[in-house]
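Record 1 of the preview.
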Amino acid sequence: MMDLAGLIRSGDGIWWGQGGAEPTPLVDAVLDAADRIGPVTAFVGASWNPRLKGELPDTLTMTSYGALGELRHPSRGGRLEVVPCHYSALPRMFAAGRLPCDVGIVQVSPPEKKGLVTLGVGVDYMADALPHTRTLIAEINHRMPATTGGPRLPLSMFAAVLETDRPLLEVPVRAPDEVDRRIADHVASLIDDGDTLQMGVGSLPNAVLDALTGHRDLGFHSGIITDRVLDLIDKGVLTGARKEIDPGVVVTGSAFGTNDGYLRISELPIEFRATSYTHSPVVLSQLRSFVSVNSAIEIDLSGQVGAELARGRYIGAVGGQVDFSRAAALTGSRSIIALRSTVSSPAGGTTSTIVPTLSGLVTTGRVDVDAVVTEYGVAVLTGCTDAERARKLARIAAPEHREALDRSVRDLHGTA
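->
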């Protein structure tokens, strides 16, 4: 294992890659050396590194844009500090030194004939942080696919490299169930042939992608792709033929999937781009058929979306939801928020995810939401008054919670 104590200084800020691109052997080396180095601050996005479930060094301060994957464990333990921001703001924050960027740790593909490497399946914020980082350290993983669209880097950029041959981190996802499939069918009914889609990772996005197998000439422009996106390319559903920009190409920042999927990526028309491209308002405004599909923890009767906190703890993030939802609602085709109508309550029974008022923070404003979908139907909110919005949202709540929501509608607006 590489000893990083000579490359990282006390007081440094460190960032590293996320998802399948997380350089776990080097991250483990940071955790092992942290007490000898002294106080350091580390920034990572979504992480499935099992080391983050356990005890973290007292000298390490963990930061992120949210609490995704295994970061929920330090969040619950009070060891994670969240920087609330739109995902599109990350490049500017690295450039201004407002995020840790003394040391950057990346996982890269093996050098090609000219000696250049790529960032593989994790280009996103890493590509934007590189120019502002003092010391770069790389894991050269022989199983990391070389990808197109992102920077090609000479090995001379790196102060140290570690060569490995190991599987990439996989993103565990529960198989879609019947509720997911019912929601997905409603979402699919709102998507037209030729639309360009954005969605995230999880059982519900996977169900939506499964429900789109009968569509044609769909495009994809998103911060993340999963194995289901690769499946739709194979089936001829995702052709990108009608995209206004980047026709014929799936554009993403990262892949969150399985090793079987990672191995296929270099054979498919996929380009991995920096966050400054994938989430840019200027870029997104050119996708006139853009449909965003995002999820939520809860939605209030005005249509405001909470996607960060549950019972006072971070379990989500602002992420790219607002960037994509706003673009879809303003210059694209449609902004969709899809969620299950209930969640299990710690006290037993279920709690409605459609609520009179949010229990936590507002992630996405009501005016950036065109439609809300649960397993009980679709509430199209565009052009509706506040009272009409509340009534429509109450109708797609779980039946056992509608009476209470109807009372809230009457209290708020005088009618149900």
